[in-house]
Design goal:
Elements (H helix, E strand, L loop, with lengths): L6 H13 L3 H15 L1 E2 L2 H13 L9 E2 L39 E3 L17 E3 L13
Parallel strand pairs: 1-2, 3-4
Helix pairs in contact: 1-2
Length: 141
Amino acid sequence: MPEALTKREIDSLAITARILELKKLQQALSELSSKSRRKKLTADQVTARVSTFKSGGESVSMKNADLSGEWLSGLDLHDAKLNQSVLDNANLSGSNLSRADMSGVQAIEVELDHANLESVIARDSSLRASSMQGARLTRPT
């Protein structure tokens, strides 16, 4: 995929790919456009944000963040705003994501084992080839 495409060229290619059902081109264009507008956050930066916001009683916002490949295991991310973020190859095992807004999230090969996913908003999200063993999806009765 050429790096020097304009936004207009990328949009035109995306429409053509969608019409012709060219899945690999659609994925490549999606990754190209999403990487250009996402802020890469490290596990340390996420941990610092969570600590800061939780002490103030607010929910942490990481909309449009690139959290791919980060080790975020065990973090308390309840009520977090993760809209349109990329979580590819991230490890969120044992994390508390209850009531998190994960709409539009791309999560390929993410680890969610034993995570709390109660009341997560996941509209238009893509969760593929991911592990969710022992994850809690509903409230215990």
